[in-house]
Each structure stands twice: as structure tokens, then as C-alpha cells.
Specification:
This protein is of the alpha+beta class. It is built from 9 helices and 4 strands, in the order E-H-H-H-H-H-H-H-E-E-H-E-H. It has helices spanning about 10-40, 40-70, 80-110, 120-150, 150-180, 185-210, 220-225, 260-280, 295-300, and strands at about 1-5, 235-245, 245-255, 280-290. A 4-stranded mixed β-sheet has the order 1-4-3-2. Helix 1 packs antiparallel against helix 2 (about 40-70). It is elongated.
Length: about 300
């Protein structure tokens, strides 16, 4: 069995990225809310509320990655890695709450017909600036998420991307408001709501993939790799699960029944080393040795 040590430096880097994003999200959200209130533009105010939830999501991610970085112990022999996925789940829930808060205001405006949005070049300018910030943050998080193989950064980058999409919708709405169509403001807000819900669904899909122990590495790829080890006669019952960056694998390796125990274990060690070298995301590999009987070979 090969066990990879927990990478604490990775956790520190993920936390640093989230702290940077959270700080800028707070600045952006305050600017949007203030401008939205001053101009009576619900779509801008709603976008600011969405950005507040972005910051709360960042905070949830920081807490989650801090817990996930803790080493395995007696009560958590497989480590605490899924706390990172739990943080992604919290981000998804926050997205839904934000969607409700933003969408309900738009529906109320359409029902009452009270369009309070006022044409404002300042509001439009602020939204353009925040859009640039959102796109920059999204790119920054996406690249860091891929580099660090972090599910929480992946989920949070989608959250940040939804903020950028929301801002684009608001800008379009503001343009129409300035052209004399105030109804464009609540309509843009509803588009914002749909974008937020779609992002939440995407985050939940990724979370369920981990919590349901879905396959992380193609079993056939592992089988082909293991069959290259001298002495291996067949491979079957390959299973993988876990996080993207912390995968657990177990498999059955068939060897010559007449082989000595010492030689069989040497082959097992070689299989573990080969898989660990081929798949850096593997945290633990367990090899079950079996005699290559006719029955076992048929199953393989």
C-alpha cells in the first residue's frame, strides 16, 4: 500500500487565493450596493448582494480547506479531504439563497409596476469596472484551481464567473434604462437570477460526483498500466474514488499461484510504485494479490 502525505503547502496556497478573491469581492459588493441604492437600480443592488454571497462563499472555502488540510487521525483514518467538497456544497447553497433574494425583488417590481431605476452614467461606469474585476478574478481562480487541483477553487471560480455574467446582464439592463425603458431593470435582474441558479446546479453536480464516490480514474487505463509490470498475469476489480486531488484506489492483481510470497509482494510493490508515479492525484493505492487460477482468469 502506498500512501501520499497531505500537502499542507497546497492548502496554504488555496487559502491565499481565496483571501485575495474575498477581499476584492467585498470591495466590489459595497460599490454595487451603494450605487444601486442611490440610483434606485434593483439590478445593480441585486448584483451587489450576489457579490456579498461571493465573499461568504470565499469564507466558507477558507474554512473548508483549513479543515481539509488536517492530517488523518483515529476518527478520520482517510483524512479530512471531503471538508473541501463540503465547502463547495455551502457555496452552492449560498448561490441559491442569492438567487432567491435577487429574483424575488425583480418579480415584485414587475408585479407592482413600480420601476424605480434612474438613468445613471455613474452606475453604468461602476458596473463596467466591476465586470473587469470579476473577469480577472475568475481567470485567476480558474488557473489556480487547475494548478492546485482544488475542487473548492473550481466551485468558487464558477461562483465568481456567475457574478461576471450577472454584471453583463445588469449593464445591458442599464443601457436600456438610460434609453428610456425602465422595465429593462427587473428583466435584467431575472436573467441574473437564472444565471445564478444555473451556476448552483453546476456546483452541486461536482459535489455529488465526490460524495457519491464516482469513478475518478478510468479503470481500463489503470489495468493497461498495471499489465506492463512483469509478473502480472491479469487485473480486475479496479475501483477509484475521492477528490480530484486525493484519489483512493484498490485493485486485484493476479499472479502465478506457484510464485513465492516474497516475489508476489515484490510485484505488488512495483504495481503501487508505478501507479503512484503515473497518477500524482493518487493518495492511496491498495493491491489485493490473488492466484491466477482458471476461475479468476475467467472473471478478469
Amino acid at each position: 500500500m502506498v500512501v501520499r502525505e497531505q500537502d499542507t503547502s497546497r492548502a496554504r496556497e488555496v487559502r491565499r487565493v481565496l483571501l485575495v478573491v474575498m477581499t476584492l469581492n467585498l470591495v466590489v459588493s459595497v460599490a454595487k450596493i451603494v450605487i444601486g441604492v442611490l440610483t434606485g437600480t434593483n439590478s445593480v443592488r441585486g448584483d451587489g448582494i450576489h457579490s456579498i454571497f461571493d465573499s461568504l462563499g470565499n469564507l466558507a472555502g477558507i474554512i473548508g480547506i483549513s479543515l481539509a488540510a488536517r492530517p488523518a487521525d483515529e476518527s478520520h483514518p482517510y483524512g479530512h479531504g471531503k471538508f473541501e467538497t463540503a465547502a463547495s456544497l455551502v457555496i452552492g447553497v449560498m448561490l441559491l439563497i442569492a438567487a432567491f433574494e435577487v429574483g424575488s425583488g425583480a418579480v415584485n417590481t414587475l408585479v407592482t409596476g413600480e420601476y424605480g431605476a434612474q438613468p445613471s452614467a455613474l452606475a453604468l461606469g461602476i458596473m463596467v469596472v466591476t465586470l473587469v474585476v470579476n473577469i480577472t478574478l475568475t481567470t485567476y481562480e480558474q488557473r489556480a484551481g487547475r494548478r492546485l487541483n482544488s475542487s473548492v477553487l473550481g466551485a468558487d471560480s464558477k461562483h465568481t464567473l456567475s457574478d461576471a455574467l450577472v454584471t453583463i446582464s445588469v449593464i445591458v439592463g442599464l443601457i436600456f434604462v438610460n434609453l428610456g425603458f425602465p422595465i429593462a431593470d427587473p428583466i435584467a435582474t431575472l436573467i441574473v437570477t437564472v444565471a445564478i441558479v444555473a451556476t448552483a446546479v453546476d456546483v452541486f453536480k461536482d459535489v455529488l460526483h465526490t460524495f457519491s464516490d464516482a469513478v475518478r480514474i478510468d479503470p481500463q487505463e489503470i489495468e493497461r498500466s498495471v499489465m506492463e509490470v512483469p509478473g502480472v498475469m491479469a487485473v480486475h476489480r479496479v475501483r477509484t474514488r475521492g477528490l480530484e486531488n486525493e484519489v483512493y484506489a484498490d485493485l486485484h492483481v493476479l499472479v502465478d499461484p506457484a510464485m513465492t510470497i516474497q516475489r508476489a509482494h515484490e510485484i505488488s510493490d512495483e504495481v503501487e510504485r508505478k501507479l503512484a508515479a503515473s497518477y500524482p492525484q493518487l493518495s492511496e493505492v491498495v493491491v489485493h494479490l490473488e492466484p491466477a487460477t482458471a476461475e479468476e482468469l475467467r472473471e478478469a
